[in-house]
Amino acid sequence: MNKSTHIGLYVFFGVLTTGINIICYTLLANIFSVNYIAATSIAWIISVLFAFVTNKLYVFKNWNNKTGFLKEMVLFILLRSSSYLVDAGTMIIFVEILAVNDVLSKIMINFIIVVLNYILSKHVVFKASHNN
User: Fold this and answer.
1) Average model confidence (pLDDT) for the chain?
2) Segment 48-72, tens digit of pLDDT
3) Distances in Å between the alpha carbon of 99 and those of 42, 91, 92, 96, 103?
């Protein structure tokens, strides 16, 4: 797979993952009145599970590595936890300190998260399955 196709797939599924994250967050926080940190946490869990499956199967095409599945999943979740800390931490800064609207904050922060997650996925989790 050439580099532009690889990045295009990551961006496509990254947009879907980000959309799932923002939609879940918005539903939980604004429709069901869940605290914004709890809503961020739940939305993160749902979007990380979606991202793992789509990254493994479609972006990094790593469906043949059945023996390393659990190891990859654990590593993926651990590394995504670092992006969760960035997400939750910056949400606190934007919402509590800077008084930025929570949904707008969520959208802005997700741009940073997408880049961070790509780097971690490509160079750490699925590094053996790509040629770039």
Assistant:
1) 85
2) 999 998 988 888 776 666 667 788 8
3) 22, 10, 9, 6, 12
Helix (H, G, I), strand (E, B) or coil at 46: helix
In 3D space, the residue among 34, 35, 26, 28 whose CA is nearest the CA of residue 106 turns out to be 26
Choice between 67 and 79, residue whose per-residue pLDDT is larger: 79
Structure tokens at 36: 């914004």
Q: Is 95's pLDDT higher than 80?
A: yes
Distance CA(18)–CA(14), nearest Å, equals: 6
Tell me the DSSP string of 51-118. HHHHIIIIIS--TT--TTHHHHHHHHHHHHHHHHHHHHHHHHIIIIIS---HHHHHHHHHHHHHHHHH
Structural tokens at position 42? 């739940």
Give CA torsion, residues 68, 74, 79, 80, to 10 deg. 120
Helix (H, G, I), strand (E, B) or coil at 10: helix
Q: Which two tokens stand for residue 66?
A: 């059945």
